[in-house]
Amino acid sequence: MKPRVIELTEYKPRHLSRDELRPEDARLLWERYGKRINVDFPSPRTADRYILTPQGWVGYLPLTPELHLDLRTKVPVVSVFAMLEYAYKLKGFEILSGVRDCTSLDELFEKLAHILALRVLRRARRGFYREYLRREESLRHLRGRLLTREALRKPWEVRLWCRYEEHTADIDDNTLLAWTLQRVSRSAACGECSRPAIRRAYRSLAGLVALRAHGAAECRDRLYHRLNEDYQPLHALCAFLLEHSGPAQAGGDRDSIPFLLDMHSLFELFVFGWLTAHAPPQLLVDCQYVTDDELGFRADIVLKDRTTDKLHCVIDTKYKTPDKAAAADIQQVLAYAEMLDCDEAVLLYPVEPAKPFDGCPGQSPIRVRTLAFPLDGDLESAGSNLLSELPGPESTAPTR
Prior knowledge:
Blueprint: E1 4-9, E2 14-16, H1 23-33, E3 37-40, E4 50-54, E5 57-62, E6 67-72, H2 77-87, H3 105-126, E7 131-139, E8 145-146, H4 148-153, E9 160-168, H5 172-184, H6 195-206, H7 231-243, E10 259-262, H8 263-278, E11 283-292, E12 297-305, E13 311-317, H9 327-339, E14 344-349, E15 358-359, E16 367-372, H10 379-389
Parallel strand pairs: 1-6, 13-14, 14-16
Antiparallel strand pairs: 2-4, 3-4, 5-6, 5-10, 7-9, 8-9, 11-12, 12-13, 15-16
């Protein structure tokens, strides 16, 4: 029997009667995903109804075998794909044809997983990249170099301690692919159209590598060269798929893993990626810039002069659509700018607030502004308009 699917839209409350949502399901949702979906239980304040409100998370959530949640975004799916190109450095790779035609986020996730599987199968036909790894172990026969010191310590042992180099495919470049394929094969967003290819790709690696858990961060900033340069887009896809494949809801191989996309994080990574690609050469764009080591404060994005190291602007991205900037948000970005001795601070939203802010709070000499990077139209034009409004070197025209 097919599960019942409840559709939710980010930041839009969905009212459900007691008959539409069982108490045990509501409690499970609140306990496991309460930070991603706000759950208000029936009370006089809610007119005796459940109220579910996604907090900037979108994707597909299999809560129980009988009940799934489809978390939809207000942003057009084509814009989400364009954001992914910049956020995960996929732009420029000729592997994403056909993905722009996706009409839903779970379809986008499935197509990206399918592309990863097909590219892994293509690499399998050529042979996976291998490296020489140094190993030391006790063997029945001599291999490589005999370790005499270890042998003399235990002269009664017949086996020989050897140090040798093994040409193996069991390296991180390949185990990242195997772990990602194993995870996405269990994702609720992947259907029968993509699972056969995903499983074939996983089996092509299973006999060569040991399955090891990896995080999305391990897919970034890796070293590539002539022999493994085609792994770069594969690892970029792995980063996206791993980052947004949530934990299984219980033990066992048959569990369905949710696909949850954090639009707050994606918005920040996209803005950083777009500015990095289009900022003038003398302007350096930095992400998660440390403002206070002891307290762990980090500014989302900073713009600084590449030559003089002077900070031009601190940007704090806010994926929400308020009527006006919250006082706490202004205080936060102002504190970042003060710590960094920067004269300009920007609160960046996906939609310009109805009541924009532009001023120097209190007696502070720091100018704080609200700006927007709209996501519902041409992202390139929106980015160019934003870049022209940001402080920086004399030339702030985007590069091409």
